[in-house]
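Researcher: Let's do a round of design. I'm pasting the structure tokens now; please hold your answer until I've finished.
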């Protein structure tokens, strides 16, 4: 996997929601830095100013002869309330509540397990096939029922999320075992995946490129290997890839496609890890 994107500070932002999230992160970090320095200076000042020395006795009556800290505290509370109500809430609401219309978005299912991702596309009919727990095996990691008419053209993409640029994506996240976390650093997406729940997230990419998926929950001994490929393609490239997958699905309709692509992905992962 290439690593041109991940340096010391925030990774590049290619998300339509990213600028607002990054702004908020910056404002809060600078605010915390100012508070940290302010409190540290005040602490040292108090240590010197109120040290024990002859001729001075501590006044424990609580009489307020030093009211600046009180006003500073009130100011901080007001600043925090403003940043929460006017900056955080609108972004949170946009990212977590204002989902794009499913008809205009690309909807994918992302299933996490120790220690891999499976991305499930609905195929050209736009309908996901049924998932059956008894069908889960090494070649069918999500238990997709190929007998189901809706499931015949579904594409399973192991460890690779391919998306078109400039199109809203809705990813419905699920886990087969423990709590994982779907992390797309360049999209500013980080969402816990709780077993037994389907958790939707949405995002839209503004640039093409090859990036990575990480798991941001310590989900077991192989946690660090739980990395996937995240490719943002042009619409044409994406369609070509999609059609290629559909074609190979037709060609090998007697054997499950998931087995074939799984093998390819394994080879790819081995190559990349060298
Ligand atoms: Cu994980």
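Researcher: That's everything. Go ahead.
Model: Designed sequence:
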């Amino acid at each position: 996997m290439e690593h041109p994107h991940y340096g010391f500070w925030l990774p590049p932002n290619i998300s339509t929601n990213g600028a607002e999230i990054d702004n908020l992160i910056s404002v809060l970090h600078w605010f915390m830095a100012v508070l940290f320095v302010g409190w540290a200076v005040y602490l040292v000042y108090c240590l010197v100013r109120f040290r024990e020395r002859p001729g001075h006795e501590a006044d424990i009556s609580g009489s307020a002869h030093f009211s600046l800290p009180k006003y500073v505290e009130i100011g901080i509370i007001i600043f925090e309330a403003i940043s929460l109500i006017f900056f955080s809430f609108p972004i949170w609401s946009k990212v977590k509540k204002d989902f794009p219309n499913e008809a205009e978005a690309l909807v994918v299912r992302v299933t996490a397990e120790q220690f891999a991702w499976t991305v499930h596309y609905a195929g050209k009919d736009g309908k996901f096939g049924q998932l059956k727990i008894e069908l889960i095996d090494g070649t069918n990691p999500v238990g997709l029922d190929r007998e189901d008419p809706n499931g015949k053209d579904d594409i399973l993409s192991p460890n690779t999320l391919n998306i078109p640029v400039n199109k809203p994506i809705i990813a419905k996240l699920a886990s087969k075992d423990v709590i994982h976390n779907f992390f797309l650093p360049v999209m500013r997406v980080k969402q816990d995946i709780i077993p037994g729940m389907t958790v939707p997230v949405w995002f839209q990419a503004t640039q093409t490129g090859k990036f990575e998926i990480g798991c941001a929950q310590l989900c077991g001994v192989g946690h660090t290997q739980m990395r996937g490929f995240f490719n943002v393609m042009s619409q044409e490239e994406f369609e070509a890839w999609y059609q290629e997958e559909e074609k190979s699905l037709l060609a090998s309709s007697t054997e499950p496609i998931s087995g074939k692509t799984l093998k390819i992905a394994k080879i790819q992962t081995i190559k990349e890890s060298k």
